[in-house]
Design goal:
Layout: H1 11-18, E1 27-31, H2 38-50, H3 64-71, E2 77-80, H4 83-92, H5 102-111, H6 121-125, H7 128-132, E3 141-145, H8 153-164, E4 170-176, H9 184-187, E5 191-194, H10 200-209, H11 215-221, H12 226-235, H13 242-253, H14 259-266, H15 271-289, H16 301-310, H17 313-329, H18 336-350
Parallel strand pairs: 1-4, 1-5, 2-3, 3-4
Helix pairs in contact: 10-12, 11-12, 13-16, 14-18, 15-16, 15-17, 17-18
The protein binds zinc ion (ZN).
């Protein structure tokens, strides 16, 4: 994250928002669909807030402050995120991230514990001395907290204490996909800035600019989130995983299904991942059943049309509910392969393929 720029679909809302910087709230919750670039948004916003000569409310990219932000060593900018994410961001980018990455190495290196997936209370407490430092040219100090869902009950309450008596000239930008998972007391201390999902047209144009081939399919598979679509295109072989198209085709044909082999394949991935894809498949069936355009897997259109004709709408919503429940227990299964087998079998049974009783 060296370039502190807004994505094209964010510029207008950013300018309107930043125009009120003189009477800015001290804590904001920036929220919206996963994968639309919220993290980049708050980073660019921080740059704009700290810039010495903002142009139309945005960072100039030329001044000393902008230079520090780009290098990741502006003393008035802190990124508070789980250690796992800090390592990921550090790994993406070889350059020195400055002071923020140091605590990760210190903590994880010396005690040899696994990097934390949570925002730890120590990370919030360690901000105290920072609040007392003078800021560069008496400007803003900005703390980016992402994802806010990674705040634990303890670290969330520690942050709440800070926000109840906000330090001077300090702006907290929290980022969340799902604000309803945050502490209500914490939510009540933040102004909200919802970020909209860009239109398919704008998102596809941007993906094409990023040299993503087959942009429409990747965008669909990401649920319409362009930043996620780009990441998927760069890390996955196909917008629709091969096992999923195999599964859909066998469901459609009603024969030749090798559930065991498919279960074998998918159980190598985390269950939450493949269950989400199956949930999306069922969502697409549901849309199709209601005569709407499919959302995630346009390439499976043909199979989906056949399948949704075979299932009653009530059966489809029952199946969707059942998958929701399975997703909640997915992290706690002892035998991943058996679990995968049971889930695939249940869907196949619902699609009247298998003689196995529906559970
Ligand atoms: Zn600047």
């Amino acid at each position: 994250m060296s370039a502190a720029q807004f994505f094209p679909w964010q510029v207008e809302v950013a300018q309107q928002w930043l125009a009120q910087r003189e009477r800015f709230a001290h804590a904001w919750l920036v929220h919206g669909l996963a994968g639309i670039g919220k993290r980049e948004f708050v980073f660019a916003a921080a740059a704009a807030l700290m810039c010495e000569s903002p142009a139309n409310g945005l960072a100039c990219g030329q001044c000393l402050a902008c230079g520090w932000v780009a290098k990741g060593n502006h003393p008035d900018l802190k990124r508070i995120r789980p250690e796992t994410l800090a390592l990921e961001e550090g790994a993406e980018q070889d350059e020195d991230e400055g002071s923020e990455s140091a605590p990760v190495a210190e903590v994880t290196g010396s005690s040899k514990r696994a990097p934390s997936k949570d925002i730890r209370v120590e990370q919030i407490r360690s901000l105290a001395p920072w609040f007392n430092n003078a800021t560069h040219r008496s400007g803003f100090r900005v703390a980016l907290i992402y994802p806010a869902e990674a705040l634990t009950h303890i670290s969330g309450n520690a942050l709440l204490k800070v926000l109840e008596e906000p330090p001077p000239a300090t702006i907290f930008l929290l980022v969340a996909d799902a604000p309803d998972r945050l502490l209500p007391t914490l939510l009540s201390r933040c102004r909200r800035l919802p970020l909209a999902t860009p239109s398919a047209e704008i998102a596809q144009a941007w993906l094409a600019e990023q040299k993503i081939i087959n942009a429409a399919a990747w965008l669909a598979a990401s649920g319409g989130a362009p930043v996620l679509a780009k990441k998927m295109a760069e890390t996955q072989p196909e917008p629709c995983p091969e096992w999923l198209s195999t599964f859909a085709t066998s469901l459609e044909k009603g024969s030749g299904m090798n559930v065991g082999q498919l279960a074998d394949t998918i159980s190598k991935e985390p269950a939450s991942l493949w269950i989400e894809l199956l949930q999306r498949l069922v969502i697409d069936m549901n849309l199709k059943a209601h005569g709407l355009e499919v959302r995630y897997f346009p390439m499976l259109q043909k199979s989906l049309t056949v399948l949704c004709a075979r299932l009653a709408v009530a059966q489809l919503s029952e199946l969707a509910d059942w998958l929701n429940q399975q997703r909640r227990v997915a992290g706690h299964t002892l035998n991943g392969k058996l679990f995968a087998h049971a889930v695939l079998q249940r869907i196949a049974a619902a699609c009247q393929l298998s003689s196995a009783p529906a559970r």
